[in-house]
Amino acid sequence: MSKVIGGAPRAGGGGGKRISRDRARQHYAAIVESSDDAILSKDLNGIITSWNRGAQRLFGYTAEEAVGRSVTLLIPADRHDEEPMILERVRRGEKIEHYETVRQRKDGSLLDISLTVSPIKDEKGKIVGASKIARDITEFKRAWERQELLLGEMDHRVKNLFALAISVLRLSGRSAGSVPELIGSASDRLLALARAHALTLSSGLRELPQAAKPATLRSLIRAITAPHDVQGDSDASKFSVTGCDMEISGTVISSLALLLHEFATNSTKHGALSAIAGRIQISCANHGETLVVTWTERGGPEVVPPTGNNGFGELLTRTTIASLGGELSRDWQPKGLVIRLSMPRARLTD
Predict the structure, then answer these.
(1) 112 burial class (0-12, 13-18, 19+ CB within 10 angstroms)?
(2) pTM over 0.70, yes/no
(3) d(Cα 300, Cα 303) in Å, to the nearest integer?
C-alpha cells in the first residue's frame, strides 16, 4: 500500500470544518494515488515522506522500501549535486517546473524524466518539505532525437540535391546547342534524380528511426530505365535485369541514377533503344569485394564508336566513376555496345 502522509485533524470545535478538511484530504490523496505520474514528497533534508503507486511503477521501489530513505536513492552518482540545488530553491519558496534530468530505477537502469517540484507549507505558512511530480519522458526524447536525425538528414540531402541540380544545369548548358535542348536534357536528368530519391522515401515519415529507406541496386535500375521501356510490337520489356541485388546508400544513389540515365539516354539516341527490336541485358554480379554491372545492347543499329565526345554526359560519367572509386569500360561490338561498370561494394553501402 502506498503511503501518503498528511496532518491529523485537530480536536475540539469546528467539527463540520474538520470533516470537510478530512474529505478534501481523502479526495486529494485518492487523486495522488491514482495518478500515472510518480508523485512523492520529501522533507527539507531530502528524506522521502510519501510515495504513490505511480512512483512504484516508475522507479521500481515499493512505498515501504522508499519512505524514510534519502531521495538520492533515485539520483545517479554523477548527478548528486542536483539535490542540494533543488532543496535550496525549495527553501526559498521557489517552484521548479519541467526540469529535465535523469533518474535511476531500482534495477539500476536510467530514465529521462521531467520534474516539477513545489514547496510544502504547514498551517502557519512555514516551508516544511517539497512535493515532486516525475514524468517519464524517455520515449518522448527518443522520438525527438529521431526527428532531429531525420531533419538533419533531410537538410543534408536537400542541400546536396540543390548543389547537384545546379551542377547539372551549369554543365548541361556547356554542351547544349539551344535553349530547348538545354531544357530537355536538364529536365530529363533531374527527373531521373527524382525517381531515384523516391525509392529512398517510400516508407514515409512513419519510420522515424530511419532517415531514409535504403534503395536496392535492382530497384534503382528499374526506376531509371522504366521511362525508356517503350515496347514495340510485343509486350516484352526492352530491359532484362538479372543477377545479384544489394542495398545502396543515399550518398551514392544520385551518382548511380545519373550514370544509368546517361547509359539509357545514349542508347535511345544511338543504340539499341533507338530500334524497335532493340533490347538491353543488365546483369549484376559480385566478384569478391567488387560489384560488376554489365550493360549489353542487342538488336540496335550498327555500332559506330564516337570520337571526341567531350559533352556533359561523358564528363558526368568520368566524374561519377571517380567518385565511386570504380572503373568503366566500353566494348563496341558489332552486335551492340557492352558497358562494364565495376565498383567497390563498400562504397555503395557507406
Answers:
(1) middle
(2) no
(3) 8
